[in-house]
Amino acid sequence: MQSNHGLEFQLLGPVAVNLRGQALPLGGPKQRAVLVALLLRANNVVPTSQLLQLVWSDVPNSAESNLRTYLTRLRRLLRVPGEEQSRLLTQQGGHLVVVHDGELDVSGFEELAKKGEKAGDDSVARQYFERALGVWRGKALDNVPLGPPLAAETARLEARREHVHEQYLQARLALGEHGELLPELRALVLCHPLRERLTCMLMVALHRSGQRAEALNVFRQARTRLVEELGVEPGAELRELHQSLLADEDPDTGGPRPASGPATKAEPSRSTTAADPARSGGVPGTNGHGRPHRFRLPRPARKAVLVRPAVALPRRGLDRPAQVPVDLTTFTGRTAELAQLVGPQPAPAPHQSLITAVDGMAGVGKTTLVVHAAHQLMTSYPGGHLYLDLHGFTSGVEPLTPHEALHRMLRALDVPAGEVPAGTEERASLYRSLLASRRMLVVLDNAHDEAQVGPLLPGAGDHRTLITSRKRLTGLPQAQSLSLEVPPLTEAIALFMRLSTANRLPGEPPELIEEIVELCGRLPLALRIAAARLSHRPSWNLRYLRERLADERLRLGELSTGDYGVGTAFARSITDLGPEDQRMLTVLGLVPGSDIELHAAAALAGLSVPAADRRLEELVDAHLLRHTAPGRYEFHKLVHTLVAERTRTAEPSEVRGALRRVLDYYLHTADAADRLIHWERPRKELGPPDPPVTPLPFGDADEALSWFDRAEPTLLHLIRTAEENDLLTHAWQISLRLEGYFDTRQRWADGIAAYEVALKAVRRLGNRFAECELLLGVAFGWTQLGQHRKAIAHYASALSLCRKIGHHCAEAFSAMGLAEVYGRQHRLDEAIRYHQSALDVYHRVDDIHGFLVALDYLGSAYREHGVHTTAIERYRQAAEDSERAGNDPDVLRYLIHLGETHRILGRHDEAVEIIMRALDLRTTAGDRRVVSYAQAVLGMPKSTTGGAELVGPHGAR
To answer: What is the mean pLDDT of the chain?
Structure first.
């Protein structure tokens, strides 16, 4: 939808603004929210106060300033070439966006929808509704984080979309397209089981397709859900339709259903008009333009003759089994996964039946999902419903062999025990033969592997097989795969609340429920056990349950009941692994489970990287580990709890060897990363890593920083673990390699915590030089956090220790650090005294570079306190001495400081002359940042070539 101006405003999907087909950059989340708030009220002034509430809801102090910035950016953005002013205007104490006809997709959608609602002909209405729905590109306002006011707008738009979609389906149903609509209506009712209009349409479509029994079953399911979830009976229209079908009447006429005969498809109905209201509309409700609420089917031009499916009735007995277990009334969520199982399916290859294998970790709800899906599929498979627990991962029970499983299947199909063949292949052949002539639903639960499942799969025919397993059954190429993850937080909370006794939750804070759900790792099995324990213990409340789950070492014990629990389920998966995979799993417990690197896992196991990769992928296929990105993995938090417990009880020498190797890996990788982001820091070379260890290489500083961002929690954990396990050198060496990262990301709270642990390690080692370095790190961190008293105490401790042991470089740095903190406190005498102390140390050890840096800092201290003449002397000395040493970058910096001080004193000519000297050095110094700063000092135009012009209060030179 594009206007003559070439501008498009799109809200019905990801928010976008296109100018002549090119997307405009809309800025950050809040700026997009401002634009959305204005576009939802296009061509109307939105008062500033209202705009603030729409965008921020809880308006912070900085909101007005930020809003002005966003409006300025949007005003520039919404300038259309050829138009005199921006589309964003400020008027009457508010703001508005000017939108012309055809530019805003919301308006286009509404215009087409209204035309469809006014159309007297179902065919015309269908076209308008289809075009209106085609305007949508996804969920409304999809890429904008919304507060409650704008979220309400999203809900309004989505509700309007749903209403138009229902009218579109109604028009198609009136045109006799019930057969084509069945798959879509099934999926919609599955996703929206409480919308009675959709249920009515599905029942009508089923009835007109000759599936009256299934239509009645749809009503029973809808009524059960309405009563259980809302405590209400179905509405009048749905009940009326149900009664009509019970009486075997044609809902179209209210009369007796036609006698059976050859089935014919209903032809499209004649046009419905306002003059014939009794025949307009196909489902309950109205389109808002006079169409009746009363449910009536449109009368086909040629009446459809409805017949039951032409399937021979099986004889009564066990040959029509109904073995699927009872469906759980507490089933919650899994909408998308359920749609994959019961919605429209791709056609299987010729001579093959439809097979879906659902895999996932223990306790994730595979069986619950498949049983729920099976109940919804039953009516489509009148030949019977087989169910078999294969005990692939049942604790204390051996997996069924295919031989035994086939025996049970054949007995379920009413084959006498004496007639079951002796051989496995013969049993499989008979099994396939018995299934060939009927439509069967087969559920193979808790499968161990492909070899167990293969002989149990039906052959050619219209069958549906659902398999569950904790392993990915990649060896079944004919099967579709559905991997089940833990549910999202909102769904997990809904499940816990549904499982819990209703009178235990009212009044409890939502954040407490959320915390309990997260402590259970959102795992359905854990949620069921936690809810059951809460329900069966009247003296417990949510806070007490939270306290019992809070201790990670005791959590798995809390999430168990009798002989069964989360830990037991996981342990069965682990015992199924081979020895090498179990060993890999055990050593992985040494690191936090949220981010496991392939190279780190290789170091832990003492394997090459390719060999470690194979072991990790085996764990992924067993759903004990999750693949998050190339070369990176994570544990579910409850799996990690069990693995960490295995690590604590493993052979100490093996665990210590693994810990030493992984510390070596992180030390050498952190050193490589630190050299890129903190290259100027002096450091001692490390010895070579342990031979199996392969540190990560980095291409540039950005790559190194990204690694630090991911690895920081693991590094902090390992520093503590190293100190606790007497690997003290690793503890302090890793800590010092994090200094550049802590400074770059300003994560000094974490830095101080790491250094405090490292200090304990070096004091136990008696390494006084490393102690000095770490004290300086802690002091610098407190300085950056503005904790000056703590910074002074640590700098003073470092200075005292450095003087005792003769660590001159650290002594000078300690003195400069004290001077810096005293300067921030405006204690000039102390600052100058410690700067002078640093100068004396550098002079004594003949460190010319350190001496000149200290001299420059001393000049800055004098300048900041108004002693400009002394500052000029220090800067001049630093520049002259550095020039003699041939250090152009430092000379450039000192000259700029000198020139700036002259400018402060109003000596413009001297300042210009000095800075021009500095700029003459730029080709050799190459420090473009310093050059830019020099140009900014006197308001110079930015020129990187010769002849730069300095403009100041005395004119040009």
So the answer is: 83
- Name residue 224's amino acid: T
- Report CA-CA distances (Å) from 656 to 599, 648, 730: 18, 11, 13
Cα–Cα dist 221/204, whole Å: 15
Strand partners, 565: 560
Tokens at 108, concatenated: 């286009």
Whole-number CA gyration radius for the chain: 37
| Element (DSSP H or E) covering residue 168 | helix 148-174
Look at residue 296 in the predicted model and tell me its pLDDT.
45
φ, ψ for residue 324, nearest 5 deg: -60, 130
Burial class (CB in 10 A: 0-12, 13-18, 19+), 375: buried
Rounded to 5 degrees, φ, ψ at 627 are -85, 120
Cβ–Cβ under 8 Å, residues 735 and 722: no
pLDDT higher than threshold 80 for residue 834: yes
The pLDDT-based confidence of 866 (bands split at 50, 70, 90) is confident
Dihedral of alpha carbons 821, 827, 830, 832, sign: positive
Angle in degrees, 0-180, between the axes of helices 63-77 and 48-56, rounded to the nearest 10: 100
Q: Which tokens belong to 404?
A: 């035994």
What are the b/e assignments for 508-534, b being 16+ CB within 10 Å?
eeeeebebbbebbbbbbbbbbbbbebb
Mean pLDDT of 350-357: 79
| Angle (nearest 5°) at CA 645 between 641 and 646 | 120
Instruction: Report d(CA 133, CA 156) in Å as an integer.
Output: 15
Cα–Cα distance, 697 to 683 (Å, whole number):
19
> 503 vs 276, which has greater pLDDT?
503
| DSSP calls for 589-654 | TTS-TT-EEHHHHHHHHT--HHHHHHHHHHHHHTTSSEEEETTEEE--HHHHHHHHHHHHTS-HHH
Q: First vs last Cα of the chain: how many Å apart?
A: 58
More confident residue, 595 or 163: 163
- As given in the structure block, the two tokens for residue 735 are 């800590």
- pLDDT tens-digit profile of 655-689? 999 999 999 999 999 999 999 988 767 677 888 88
Cα dihedral 723/728/729/732 (nearest 10): 40
pLDDT for 540 equals: 86
Task: Give the integer Cα–Cα distance in Å for 360 and 472.
Answer: 8
Give backbone dihedrals phi and psi of 467, rounded to 5 degrees, phi first.
-120, 140
CA distance 126 to 166: 11
Lowest mean pLDDT across 98-102, 528-532, 676-680, 800-804: 676-680
Residue type at position 93: G
Q: Which residue in this structure is represented by tokens 């009564």?
A: 316
Task: Return the top range by mean pLDDT from 496-500, 523-527, 935-939.
Answer: 523-527
Residue 952 pairs with which residues in a beta bridge?
A: 955
